[in-house]
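Project standup — Tuesday

K.O.: blocked on the structure for the chain from last sprint. Re-posting the sequence here as requested.
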Amino acid sequence: MKNITQRLFVLVLVFVSMTTGVSAQRVLGDTLANERVEMIAYGDMNQWITRRITESAIIGGKTKDVYAIGPTEVITGDIPYVNKGGSPWATSNVMAKVAGVTKTNTSVFPDRRGTGFSARMDTRMESVKVFGLIDITVLAAGSVFLGSVHEPIKSTKNPQKILQFGVPFTKKPRAVRYDYKIKLSGEPDRIRATGFGRTKTIKGKDLPATVLLLQKRWEDEKGNVFAKRVGTMVNYYYDDTEWIDNATYQIMYGDIASNRYYLEDRMKIQDQDRYTVNSKGDIVLIQEIGWANADEAPTHIILQFSSSHGGAYIGSPGNTFWVDNVKLVY
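H.V.: unblocked you, prediction finished:
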């Protein structure tokens, strides 16, 4: 049981840091000439589902609230979550069941803003104790993204495959726009805490991040999924801010390798492994193989916000990233 519980806890928290690296993304004004603006469904962050889940007695048996972005509702019990009400959003809040043990992670929360809500993503240390047998502490960050999570999580092997990144999308927006607020930890370096071995120092300041990718995907006869990059936007935040409304970031189209805002390490093709479900119902790697022509239309959009960058278990406790009113500008 000790090994099972250790693997379960680390598995749940591997979803916390699914980001990319630092960029100098072009920031536009809060309005564009002749613009047309569309709110992404549930992008006003005012409706939340509360999943009330009781964890297994072996790890304390506490009842936890696990939040999802979708039509307002309370769901009681360890019921696997599927996106509801047409909501395209998923979060790093997840439920796992391994060998009969139920464990949850919550690092994304609805946070009151005026008469409505925003999405608050926290980076923090998460601990679990099992009757004096196990005392594990790992670093967990918050992430909100377009896509879904295949629940319940049942295996510790490549948990990134449990995330389905992106949703169908065929338009070509000029920019993405949203309101945001930042609170950084103030630490000059990050830490890496996996729950196994000592906590390590990772050089560099921990930065909240936004990533938007437009892809043109297709599937071959064997079920492999390929993609070309149609559009790219990556932005990182270096300082604390109060609420900034209508922050607007340009989406760059086509091959941007020579663009002044391009950074190879994080905007490159196949910057990280992402997965989807093919027509056969199998979870497969999205094989991003090159740049699309700037005039080509996408088939899918990936949009992700995260309170930390650098990879799983890496960050600075105390980082918080708030996001609200997520829109696309045409």
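K.O.: great, moving the ticket to review. The helical segments are 2-13, 264-267. The chain has one domain: 2-329.
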